[in-house]
Amino acid sequence: MRQCEVLVIGGGPAGLSAAIEAAKAGAQVVVVETNREVGGQLVKQTHKFFGSSRHRAGTRGIDIAKILRKQCEDLHVELKVNSLVMGIYADNVVAIDEKKSLTEHNIERIQAKKIVISTGASENSIRFPGWTLPGVMGAGAIQTMCNYHRVIPGRKLLMIGSGSVGLIVCYQLMQAGAEIVGIVEALPHINGYAVHASKLTREGIPIYTGYTIKEARGKERVEQAVIAKVNPDWSTVPGSEIVLDTDIVAVGAGLKPLIGMAHMSGCEFVYDKALGGWAPCHNKNMESTHKGIYVAGDTTGLEEASTAIEEGTISGIAIAESLGYIPKDKAKTLKDEGWERLAGLRSGFKGEDRVKAKMKQLNRYDEVMKGGK
Amino acid sequence: MRVMNHPVLGEQKDIEWVTIIFNGKPMKAEKGEMILAALHAENQIVNRYTAKRHEPRGIYCGIGQCTDCMMVVNGIPNVRTCITPVEDGMTVEIQEGLGKWRGDK
Ligand SMILES: Cc1cc2nc3c(=O)[nH]c(=O)nc-3n(C[C@H](O)[C@H](O)[C@H](O)COP(=O)(O)OP(=O)(O)OC[C@H]3O[C@@H](n4cnc5c(N)ncnc54)[C@H](O)[C@@H]3O)c2cc1C
Ligand code: FES
């Protein structure tokens, strides 16, 4: 069986940052990515990033992906694309399904000294009559089609959810030539950044706060959406329905950590709404309760690319340290700096809830490792 | 519709075309793009019909996670078209139910 020092599952900003840090220190690293190129969510994020300049705010997501990839290549990190990790087994053995063509697959097993799980997140869906009709899709899906594949499967779009994803995607679709018929938000207020929302309202796009989608109608695809005022118990107010002509209903109902790999390796989890649901807990090395398996980025709690990069960096340093490539005291300084930068990132928008949730994860890790239940 | 003039990515020019056969008819596609993208460019959004209720399905996730976009490709059923690139001469058919396996390989 093939052996390697560090195997990273998922080549998004978290995984690539972990790989860069470990490789910089001298470790041999393989990144396994199911897509045909690395970059994760960044490959479709054509907007300039929000956040601090230290974290490349003002740089477009697609360019950050290129920078990270270039760094990996320069450090001779092996980027194994078109390769899905199917599972993690005993003794850090990882099974990989590499897609060669439509009919040919190469199944390989690699045993790694250290594993980083950085599989990112998956989109939440919501159910309503007609939700299975072609034309109803994830907000991330329509963003992928528009900004990565450069097609739009329709002309008009209704967005469900006014979080930052919903707002950004609407703005991008509008710029690309789609008509945005409106944004529906069940909360009484807009959920994302006000600056993003005002870019849309300035164009005359209505944001229906206090509304939800009741139904999507159509024969072979979406033709209309019915929205209605929502009560606190999620029932709708009779008579408040508005019928909108649209051929795309995009659902921006948030994301949740993609935790299959962490679950399979027996890591301990913590639930917190602020991080998108269940996520593996970890210590300050980003090591999970399964020794030798590290977690970083959205998979250990929904945040941002900037935090994913920092968590990945910390895990890469910790791994290099434990493999003997970085002396303990130097590693400590580097990791402390990383945690300081993370604290800075978490002091912003909705940061307080995330800080609390992350503390919960660290505490749970300690509890479990001390043998508590 | 194709986004020929993307606000950030710029204009798309010099596209290299190939031909795929969609439900028996030739359809042009950009070399190397995903089958699903080629279909969306031609406003074709139904990928398959469900086995029990014959309901149409189309893109949901766009990244290979949901299986709503599965079609019969080169005679092979259940191919996720959002993560499968086109090849010149490839046949792509709307899938009925679970599809029948009549692949030549
Ligand atoms: C519309 C939108 C706008 C955003 N804007 C910003 C912003 O302005 N600023 C900001 O900081 N953040 C932003 N974010 C958030 C940011 O994109 C994510 O937080 C970040 O990409 C998370 O990084 P990650 O590496 O944890 O996961 P991802 O980027 O999701 O990468 C995970 C990777 O793992 C791969 N993978 C998963 N499972 C497997 C497997 N089993 N085998 C192999 N590979 C696998 C996936 O294919 C993927 O490439 C935005 C997100 C969205 C959706
Ligand atoms: S659209 Fe979900 S797998 Fe293709």
What does this structure look like?
The complex is a heterodimer of chains A (373) and B (105). By secondary structure, chain A is α/β, with parallel strands linked by helices. Chain A has 9 helices and 19 strands. Chain A has 2 domains: 2-122 and 255-369, FAD/NAD(P)-binding domain; 125-251, 3-Layer(bba) Sandwich (FAD/NAD(P)-binding domain), CATH 3.50.50. Chain A has helices at residues 13-25, 61-74, 139-147, 164-176, 194-201, 260-264, 305-322, 328-345, 351-369; strands at residues 2-9, 29-32, 78-80, 83-89, 93-99, 105-117, 121-123, 136-138, 156-160, 179-185, 207-209, 211-217, 224-229, 242-245, 248-251, 255-257, 269-272, 277-280, 293-295. In chain A, helix 1 runs parallel beside helix 7 (305-322) and helix 4 runs parallel beside helix 5. Chain B is globular, with a radius of gyration of 14 Å. Flavin-adenine dinucleotide is lined by residues 9-15, 32-35, 40-42, 45, 49-51, 84-85, 118-121, 140, 143, 165, 168-169, 258, 261, 297-299, 303-306, 308 of chain A.
Summarize the structure.
The complex is a heterodimer of chains A (373) and B (105). Chain A is α/β, with parallel strands linked by helices and 373 residues long.
